[in-house]
Amino acid sequence: MSSYSNFIDLLKAGLDRAGVQDGSKLVVAFSGGPDSSALLAGLAELSDQRRLSLVAVHVNHQIRGNSSDANQASAQMIAENLKVEFVATTVDVPRISAEQKISIESAARTSRYIALADAVGSHGARGVVTGHTLDDQAETVLQHAARGAGLRGVSGMRFNSVLNIPNSDIELNVLRPMLDTPRFGCIKYCRHSGIDPVIDESNASRDYTRNRLRLDVLPQLNAAIPEASQSLARLAKNSTDDLSIIEWVVEQNLAYARIDKHRYSRADLANLPNSLVGRMLIRAYELHVGHVLNLERIHITKMVGLLSGKSGTSIELPNTTEFYVDKDEFGFRFDDDDDCPYPSSIALQKLNVPGATELGSGVTLQAELIDRPQNLDHKNQHVTYAAPDLLTSNLNLRNRNNGDRFQPLGMNSHVKLQDFFVDSAVPRRWRNRVPIIDSAKGIVWIAGYRLADWAKVLPKHQTVARFELTGSKKRDQQHSAASHRTCIREVYLPEA
């Protein structure tokens, strides 16, 4: 079989593996180099057979000044000779690199994919097709392995994947149909097609890690171990197969534990191995943030440790995210999220008795005298019954103070309020905002949690004081969501 026929056959197979259907409109990431030129020419040749509509998008990074402009002109000529629509966009990568204090490589990659995502959106394309080859795959696997990556790293690039661009809501469908095609096959196909590709001078610079792998490390590795590049690409395939099994297990267990979009049940992870829990936390973080950039093993280890420890704890994670652990659940929240059901603060104020006292943010505390109900053991934690003479006392509303002590119902002694909050699994981020009814004798009620023992209803009482906290809807919704977890779990249970 000729190198020409072999290239086209590999491209056809790659399009199928990438899930590119006949009749698709595609944006082609087109630098004008050998790989992208071979890709564009091959797609143009197959366009009639597979009814493909192509747009070649060239991103001018402005890294080499006039040389970058000359490369753009050459790329445009190649696309026009292939009768493919050509679009160019310019991005000042050196400026972005300096402003964001990131490497030229990172700035170029991120800005390039943002520009390609814009092109996909404006042209209504199925995704962007890139010219990544088998050699690129080998370089990727080698680089990730050298950095100590896990299976996800050594599984390399996928034929079809969704790229979440950091610090944005952009999701880009990336298609890589040439991952089984060696680089020399692209060069031969360009020669066969009469294409004089652009030679990017930066590819010869050893200032970049990727170039040193391409120019120095892989040639030596292939000399020592023949066809090492093909073996590394095969490792990526094998790792992808193994990873797909692990990801299936992770997704099933995460769905089983899910309460809602960003909250999960602690109990459903209690008996799982730490290695699986760690992977579930990585996936949960990815679902919350949109990517896992900057999330390191030390973060994962700390999260796993918190899950087996006390409730009410949390740690700061990259990308302005907090991981928290409460009594029955854990989850992720951004710095500006607020899941507390109580007002931000309560200024010391007199409680209206009887009557309603506004706490702010729609939260109200109601106090009234009622006939003693038959059952004082109600299920609503926002309601409590107390001795009726409390309504003749001066009662105040406030938040906690340093040194607060409290005699919880059922106890003979006082405890530190801080210890009570910890034992009652009150999230740390809520503790300064929990409403407290106070009196000259001490704390009467920690709203939503516990009445003071000295304020309890006695057998002789025919009437009782009734206190109710209303308007804390977020917490009610959370408990409601938790009560429906059985339904969620049944839907996602894996079949035997």
- CATH third-level topology of the largest domain: Rossmann fold
Q: Name the average pLDDT.
A: 87
Question: Which bin fits the share of residues in helices?
Answer: 40-55%
* Largest sheet composition: 6 strands, mixed
As laid out across the biggest beta sheet, the strand order is: 3-2-1-4-6-5
* Spatial gap, N to C terminus: 46 Å
What does the model show?
The protein is of the alpha+beta class. It has three domains: 3-235, HUPs (Rossmann fold, 3-Layer(aba) Sandwich); 261-334, 2-Layer Sandwich (Uridine Diphospho-n-acetylenolpyruvylglucosamine Reductase, domain 3), CATH 3.30.465.60; 349-473, Phenylalanyl-trna Synthetase, Chain B, domain 3 (Phenylalanyl-tRNA Synthetase, Chain B, domain 3), CATH 3.50.40.10. Helices cover 41% and strands 20% of the residues. The chain contains 15 helices and 22 strands. Strands 3-2-1-4-6-5 form a six-stranded mixed beta sheet, with helices on both faces. Helix 2 (34-50) packs across helix 8, helix 6 crosses helix 9 and helix 11 crosses helix 12 (297-307). The longest helix has 30 residues, at 228-257. Mean pLDDT is 87; it is low at 473-496.
